[in-house]
Amino acid sequence: MGKFRREPRRKCSLAPGKSNLMLLRNWLEIDYLRGVDLDDPRTTVLRRRAIRENTFLSQIYDDWYGRIVASIPSGPGGVVELGSGAGFLRERLPGLITTETFHLDGMSLIVDGRRMPFTDGALKAVAMTNVLHHIPEVRQFFTEVTRVVRPGGVVSMIEPWVSDWSRFIYARLHHEPFDPTADSWEFASVGPLSSANGALPWIIFGRDRIQFEQEFREWHVVRITPFMPLAYLLSGGVSMRQLMPAWSYRAVRGFETALTPVMSHLAMFAHVVMVKRADAYAD
């Protein structure tokens, strides 16, 4: 793939408060991930390393994977994970078909979620962790999962969520585009990871949920669980240094659980589960 390209630094004029936040973010960045090209497959390998080395963050992923595994139905059909590259769901789910949109060691298949190489009704579940908000033509994805998932099967995903708190954090401290005001579900396709709208899951399943249910009547959204206002932030995520020791994870999650009554105002993520209706093929 040639020399590992790093993105050039961009000069910009920022308000003092935002400038200070950017300085803080730059100081916290992991050295080997500073300025890397998000769309280079080697960046995904480095992020896999970051998750493994960050013992607080790896517990977050284990928590997310537990939620996903618990939502997968029994019975016939395969289970596919889209965007598996940096994670380790396969360790929790033997037989999982792991995929990426580019060649990467350890992946079962190269798969674009808008055009999947599976026969009609072949799958009982599609699992995703921080993937939906990177799909530029998301309606094509929903049409495709309608084809490949059997009646009674699920799509189970962990995605960013919009709340009063997350609007502040994602707009100021996160590298991905985040636009809750976007009129369209679609956005420009630049690259598999650089293309994004972090607010897209909330736009579809929160703001525009009625529209989603009208367009994709084959699906029933059975669960939207907003959660985790602090833990991911304190972990440093996949590009910044670990801010909390591993032993503090359970205490942080316990504190977050106590915030459940006001979670709609604080959540940074949500677990969304939708089930394909048993009569999906009925006229």
Q: Characteristics of this structure?
A:
283 residues; alpha/beta; 10 helices; 7 strands; seven-stranded mixed sheet
Describe this structure in words.
- Helix 4 links the parallel strand 4 (123-129) and strand 5.
- The model is unreliable at 7-14 (pLDDT under 50).
- The longest helix has 17 residues, at 55-71.
- The chain has helices spanning 16-28, 41-53, 55-71, 138-148, 164-173, 200-207, 209-215, 231-235, 249-258, 263-266; strands at residues 78-82, 97-100, 109-110, 123-129, 149-160, 219-227, 269-276.
- A seven-stranded mixed sheet has the order 3-2-1-4-5-7-6.
- It has one domain (16-276): 3-Layer(aba) Sandwich (Rossmann fold), CATH 3.40.50.150.
- The protein starts with 15 loop residues before the first helix and ends in a 7-residue tail after the last strand.
- Helix 6 (200-207) crosses helix 7.
- The chain is globular and about 55 Å long.
- It is built from ten helices and seven strands.
- The protein is an alpha/beta fold and 283 residues long.
Low-pLDDT segments, ≥5 res? 7-14
- What would you give as the CATH superfamily? Vaccinia Virus protein VP39
The fold-level CATH name is Rossmann fold
Euclidean distance between termini CA atoms? 49 Å
